[in-house]
Amino acid sequence: MINDQSAGIERLLEIMRRLRDPDTGCPWDIEQDFDSIAPYTIEEAYEVADAIQRQDWPELEGELGDLLLQTVYHTAMGEEAGHFSFQSVVQNISDKMVARHPHVFGDESRNKSAEQQTADWEAIKAQERAGKAQKGALDGVAIGLPALLRAYKLQKRAARVGFDWPETTQVLDKIKEEAAELVEAQNELTPDEIEEEFGDLMFVMANLGRHLSLDPEAALRRANAKFTKRFEGVEAKLAERGKTAAESDLAEMDALWDAVKEEERAQT
C-alpha cells in the first residue's frame, strides 16, 4: 500500500503507522508526542491561510496535505495511547456536522436568513458545551489560540451574554484611555506593568475590530503583507543605488517608502 498512489487516505495512514513503528520506524517520528507536534500543526494552519491569501492554488494543495498530515499524526498517537483513532475522529466530526445542520440533514426549513442560521448554530454549540459541563460563557475558548484571535473570541463570547459596549465610540474612548496609560507607564512603571498596559491596549484594539465587523487576525495579516511588500520595494530601490538597507539610514529609507506608496497609488 505504501507505493500504491491510488490508495488515498489509507495509504497515508499506513505511512504514519510505519513511521511510528517502534522497531522499524523513523527515530525522530517515534520520539514525538502531542506537545511536540502541536506547534507544527499551528504553523501548517497558518501556511494554509497564507496560500489562500496569495491565491496560490498549487501551493495551497501542498499546504492542505501538510495540514492533513498533522491530523493523521495526532490520531496515530491517539490510537497508540488508546484515546481515539482516525476513524473515530472522522465519525465525531461527521456526526457534529449532521447535528449542526438540521436544515440540511434534518426536517428543519432551509428558508432562513444568514443571521438566523448563525443564531441557530450558536444555540446548538451552546447545547454541546452544556453537555460537556462547560457552564461559563468563556468555557471552551482554546487557550492555545494565537493571542489576538483568542481575545476576539473571548470578547465575542462575552458580548453574547450582554457584556459589551453598545457603541463603537465607547470602544474608541477606551483605546484613547489605554493609550494614554501606556504613555504614562513608560516612565512610572516596571517592565512587567508596561507589558500589562500594552496588553490592555491590544485587547481593546481587538474589540474595536469586532465592533467594526473585522477579524483582527486577518486585518493584521493584511497589514503584515502590506509592510513586507513595501519594505521589499524600498530594498529594491536601494539595490538600484548599489546599497543595502543596512548601508542606508532612516531618512533615505523613509523617503523611498513614500515613493513606493506613491507608485502603489498610481497603479490603483
Automatic annotation (TrEMBL):
<dbReference type="InterPro" id="IPR048015">
    <property type="entry name" value="NTP-PPase_MazG-like_N"/>
</dbReference>
<dbReference type="GO" id="GO:0006203">
    <property type="term" value="P:dGTP catabolic process"/>
</dbReference>
<dbReference type="InterPro" id="IPR004518">
    <property type="entry name" value="MazG-like_dom"/>
</dbReference>
<dbReference type="InterPro" id="IPR021130">
    <property type="entry name" value="PRib-ATP_PPHydrolase-like"/>
</dbReference>
<dbReference type="GO" id="GO:0046052">
    <property type="term" value="P:UTP catabolic process"/>
</dbReference>
<dbReference type="Pfam" id="PF03819">
    <property type="entry name" value="MazG"/>
</dbReference>
<dbReference type="GO" id="GO:0046047">
    <property type="term" value="P:TTP catabolic process"/>
</dbReference>
<protein>
    <recommendedName>
        <fullName>Nucleoside triphosphate pyrophosphohydrolase</fullName>
        <ecNumber>3.6.1.8</ecNumber>
    </recommendedName>
</protein>
<dbReference type="GO" id="GO:0047693">
    <property type="term" value="F:ATP diphosphatase activity"/>
</dbReference>
<feature type="domain" description="NTP pyrophosphohydrolase MazG-like">
    <location>
        <begin position="32"/>
        <end position="105"/>
    </location>
</feature>
<dbReference type="GO" id="GO:0006950">
    <property type="term" value="P:response to stress"/>
</dbReference>
<dbReference type="Pfam" id="PF01503">
    <property type="entry name" value="PRA-PH"/>
</dbReference>
<dbReference type="GO" id="GO:0046076">
    <property type="term" value="P:dTTP catabolic process"/>
</dbReference>
<dbReference type="InterPro" id="IPR011551">
    <property type="entry name" value="NTP_PyrPHydrolase_MazG"/>
</dbReference>
<comment type="similarity">
    <text>Belongs to the nucleoside triphosphate pyrophosphohydrolase family.</text>
</comment>
<dbReference type="GO" id="GO:0046081">
    <property type="term" value="P:dUTP catabolic process"/>
</dbReference>
<dbReference type="GO" id="GO:0046061">
    <property type="term" value="P:dATP catabolic process"/>
</dbReference>
<keyword id="KW-0378">Hydrolase</keyword>
<dbReference type="InterPro" id="IPR048011">
    <property type="entry name" value="NTP-PPase_MazG-like_C"/>
</dbReference>
